[in-house]
Structure formats: C-alpha cells, structure tokens
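Input record (one chain):
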Amino acid sequence: MTGFAQSGGNLICRLGFSFEISKNANWGIGLPIVTEVYPYSSAELAGLKQFDIIKKIDGTDLKEIASEEINQLLNPADKQEVVLQISNLTKTDHTLLIGKECKRRNAISEDQLVTAFSMLSLESTSERKFVCPFKTTVTPNPVNFQQFRTFGFAPIDENNKELENAINQAIKDELTGKGLTYDNYGPDILINTYYYFDKNPNYKGKSMVVIEKEQNFRYDFSRNEMIKVPFISTSAAESEAEYILQFGFKMVDNIFLPGRVIWECEANEFLESPFQIEDYARIHVPLMCMQYPYVRYTRNVQYKVNKKNYNYTGLNFDVNRLEMVAKVDPNSPAAVAGIRTNDIIEKIEGFSLDITAEDATAAYKTFITSTMKFRDSETRFTDANGFTRCMYWDPFKYTQVADAIKKTKEIAPFSYLFYFAPYINTSGTNACSFNLRRGKTKFEAIIRPDIRSELSVTIE
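The corresponding structure, as predicted from the sequence alone:
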C-alpha cells in the first residue's frame, strides 16, 4: 500500500512512502511497516526509513485499527501534514511530521517522464530485477528484534584472517547503518560467518549444444551499478555448474537465551567460473541484510533496482495538453527562472511542444526500433518489464544518436531531461532554453537544472 494523503477532486496528494501490515512476530506484528521511501519525497526529508514501524498516526494507536482505517488516517482532508510515531532499531518511539505533496491529477512530473522515456538514456535511467538464492531463517520464538541493540563477532580463523576481517567489516557496515552498535566485549548478538567454494563433484561438463544464455546481473552497492556475475539461474540443475559456493552468517542470541539463532541468511550458488568469496560478501552482504529485521521472503529473494539520473527543473506538464505547465515546484530551478503554473511552453531547446501524448508515445516506439543499430550489444540486459533488448548507446555512435533524437520531433523536446549526456547534447552545456507564452506575452527562460540522482533497491 502507498502512503497517500488526500485523494479527491482535481488533486492527488502523497506522503512519499509505501507500507504493508506486518505478519512477522519479530517485527511490528499487526502494525504498518514502511517498505519503501521515495527519493526526494517529504517522507524522506522528514527522516522516515525503510522498515520503520508506524505505531501511531496523529496520536491514534494503530494496534486495534483495521488496515482500511489506517489508509483513512493517512488521508486527512482538512490537514496538510500527518504526525507519525515511529519505532525502529535505533529508537523505541519518536515522531515525524510529514507534509503532503499535492498536484493536479492531470500533471505529469519529470520523475515520471524520465521513466516514460528511459530508452533515451539507459545509461542513467533503468528499472531492473534479479533473484538471489538466499535462504533466510528466523527463530520460531516471538522474540522482538528491538530488544537487541549491540552486536559483535565470533573469533575469526587466523588462517583466513584477511578474508574474515573483510567479511566482518561488510556485515558491520550494514548493521551499524541500521542503527545497531558494534560491541565485541558483551554484545547482545554474536555473529558467526561461514563460507565454502570448490569444484562441483557432480559437474557433468559443458554441453556440446551451444545455447545463448542470458547474462546474470546483481547490484553492487560499492560500485553503485549492476554488474555481470558468473552465477547460473536458480532454476538450473546442479550438474550444469562447474563450481559451487556457499556463504552465510548467523545472528546468535548472546543475552536472553545464549546460543539461540535468532536470524540466519545463507546463499548457495552454482557458478560457471571461479568467484572470490571476498567479492561475493562485498556484493551480497548488503542484499542479505535487507531482510533484517523484517523478513518478507524465506527463499529466492527478488530485488528491484530503480535508478534515475535526470535534469530536474521542477516543471509538471499537463498530460492532456503537454505544452501547458500544470505545476511548478516551489523553489525549483523553473520557479527561480520565473515560470508559473498555466504558462504555455512553445519550445524547449528549439523543439516545438505542440504534440499530444499519443503522438509522443507512438514516435518513441518507432525511435526505439530504428535506433537499435546505434546500441552496444555487449551491454545488453533485460529490464524489469521483461524487455530483452535493453542496451547502452555505442560510444562511437553518439553523434548519430543525437541526430536521430533531434529528427524525432515528438520526443526531441523531452530530451532536455538527459541534456547532460554526450549522446543527447554534444555541446557539453546543461543550461536549457524554454520559450513560453503567458497570455499574449512571449518570453524566454534559461533554466539551469539540478541533476537529480535517484536510486532505490527494494525487495519485491
């Protein structure tokens, strides 16, 4: 469920987060759990975090409230904000004031346009999915994970000191980021790690039949990008893998019932080629830890990566009449440039905006097909919608790409969203020219956009 505020008449408002009702006895059972906080939203600015437990809304205790009533509490028609009482691993109770973000129903934001025209710049904007073969186990006891505030590590194997210190550091970075405190002298949680990598004794050799396999990708937080990995699909037979890898760690109760495993995550991978355990931990510990303290899936976790880098001016366009400004975000570059709601945009960087949404959509589909020849096949991937021919532009064909965009008059005006990219704008400048009309007065506004970087990695 999405945290929407007032939704009625000609306006739609949001609070900037999604939630679900917890069925997890270890984390906020029966209460709303924040599953996603949207970048640049009022919720993010207020400090709301993923997996926060919402205990009260405007002073109303949610323990005995039905889920449909929660939505009503988040939709106060007579208020511009809501007050949430939040609980997490850091604090038992604290309050956040989250304001509404409202706009006309027919307004389309630059954030939405970037997604709609992502094939113009897959290098900076894409939505992708991948699955990790994780098995996550939680204690069957109704233990509240909020009782555990500190953690430490079991003694390391001195023969693998460098590797184990690297693994422990990766885990330490994630858990401290979640609000736990490192204490290796008397911790509430004692962490045990284990790992294994070797040739697969059941490997039957490479098939003589040549099959074009889809490349496997995982998200690497340390590099902020999707990377190719030599892992075989979770649906593949073990005999197809030349190597096998196991990696996992346990969180052991060290205070209430010493020795009890309260949480454990283990990965078992099939590989086509060798892969370093240290690299595996660096990439996968952040992904594994996304299920602590709130476990949603016990096996084969699917992740979605939504990445957007785009020019933000603060303009919202009328979806029924694209040349009309439906809203200008307060204090945005467009507002600073003097643009107002209901102004008419005649041209952007010399390209006419006298087009319909239907014309733009049709031209965009044709553009995708006709420009495949300018893409680099070595970068091919499948996006979250299942489109298998996603590829970055070939760096040697940037000029042809820019020319093809300019010639497609129905989408050329919106290329300003990626004007910082050399395959869109070869001039190297990022100031955008807008020709507008207000009543009978015509004027030009030079907008210097903010380059926004949005990234969300969520469990589906």
